[in-house]
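#onboarding

Welcome to the new folks! Below is a worked example of what a typical request in this channel looks like: someone posts a single protein sequence, and someone else replies with the predicted structure as tokens. Don't worry about understanding the tokens yet, we'll cover that in week two.

Example request:
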Amino acid sequence: MSSSVLSTISDAVGASEAAFRLLISILLGFPIALIHRYTLYGKSPIAQHLFFTSSGLLLCYWNYGLNTIHSGTAICVTYLILKFLGGTTISVIATLIFNMAYLLCGYYTTATVDYDIKWTMPQCVLTLRLIGLAFNVLDGRQPDAKLSASQREVALKEQPTILEVAAFAYFPGSFLVGPQFNMKRYLDYVNGRLMVDISKNGQLPPCVFPGISRVLIGFVYITLYQLGTMYTSDEYVLSLQFQKLSFFKRLLVIGFWGHVNMYKYIGCWLFTEGVSTINNSLHASGTPLHYLTSLLLFQVCTTFGLTYTGKNEKGDYQWNGCENVKLYTFETANRFNHYIMSFNTNTNNWCAEYVYKRLKFLGSKLYSQFFTLLFLALWHGFHSGYYVCFFLEFIIMYAEKDLTSIFEKQEKLQSWMKAHIELRMLFAAVTFVYTFVFMGYSVVCFHLLSFSRYNQVYSSIYYCGHIIYLTYPLVSILIKKMLLKKRPTKVD
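Example response:
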């Protein structure tokens, strides 16, 4: 399809040409998935590797042209590192430094004032995928006794070949905009081990309908996002009209605006695992067309059957291997930790496994959490808003954990809460509104990114969140003195 035709059609539907091209690429995933499903599934792994590599490369080239060389370079260099240094700590460090440096150079050289759909988008997914691969190879060389249960599940006992690495990286259902998955899952899928309980009966995976149902849920959230932004858009919170509202109304509006803005991510993360590329792609085009691109992606992956996770207690097949949001927990959150547990869970799990847990040598959970969040901010890019957002997450979670531990030690308060349902309901309502408002507050900088924009919003509410959480360590000393009185020691 010529560029002029694409440009004409994309203008007609209100999307950029790059977004429309990406949508077509995702749609092409359906025939690719069906071809594999009915001709190659369960057949020669080499044939499947070649099919996935060639399909992914063609899609990448059609979207990014000669910039395809960047993903190819990252794959080849990572493979060489693993081939000559694989299974060592040095190989992991080298893989991490090279891929992160390459990605950050890409951010720096292609940066504009707006988000664009460019080669750094798939490179972002690829960076985590290759770093995770290096860790999996390292774990495969360790005695099982030294590994956690989760590490044993994804450890690679054998060095992957260049064809396996390329097919894993260019898998057409996930290369362009995610989702994220590990090499062990891919190899199990290609070698018929992922869905062995289905394949042994000679069946093809019953995975098309689950993909469709998840797409429908995603459309609900996209509709809610579109309706919500009609009333509270980015332009509104930066407008003079917003400034004229009372202080508490401004807080509530920011809470609502932040919550609604999360819906565009949820609409995609119902169906995908990657985060940063999704963030970039969503910001790149605010049209329903671009959201549809990411939604369809999960259906493609489910059609492949890659999202299979076994049977539940009722014996039903589960297709939640790419589940990235827990809707009930998110919508009923009355703790900031609930948002962390329910939102962008796959990336959180990746960071927990490959960053947080690997930093235990620091001897402090607080330090491990700080450097994990710093890694996440750096991985997203250079905009100051990312760093402010993850710093806010760090200090908010510190305050929440500390306060929770204080109140859990108040036996009289806990007994009152257990005895009176109205107290529990009141507490839940107050904490719901509190987290609703300050969740929106904390993502202002993530959505607006540049200091001049998020400073305007924070100034309108007097940086109240920053003041509350930055002064909490001092306030907590007074709280502990008042509530945690030392018990007198008994004299024998």
